[in-house]
Amino acid sequence: MRVGNGEGAPRVPRQGRADWLRGARIIGVLGVFYRPEGRLGEPEAVEFLLADGQSVLLTCASDWTLRVGPGAWPRLPEWCVPSGQWEFATVPTLPQPPEGGWTVTRTEERGDENGQVREAVIRCEGGSFVVVGGDTMAIRFTRGHRGAPATT
Fold this sequence. Notes:
- Helices cover 0% and strands 41% of the residues.
- By secondary structure, the chain is mainly β.
């Protein structure tokens, strides 16, 4: 599985609508937190750890659009400067993964009126992760397969 948008360029965030994680197994979800602010709020980014050793990083741009690209787990994203002030941590509102992880059945990207991606839905057997871009990231897990259809 490759998250990227060009041959030989897996580090470049991929753009466009695609089923970019179908069939992958998510074995962990971690938030990237700015430590001086504590972990009481939402993370600045979310990294999905995959069973094959790869990871996927979801971040927000300054215009609150959502960016999806390859992660570098266990290294922090390059923009975490100084690195000593940032940390990975579990997001307390998310459940622990089941044994073997969550198998992704489909992904969706939801956009605004300008076609900019603002939300990603990662549908898994047993539930869905909903990641929303903004000033910080918002992430929730819903049991089952509820949720509105993706916009195009």
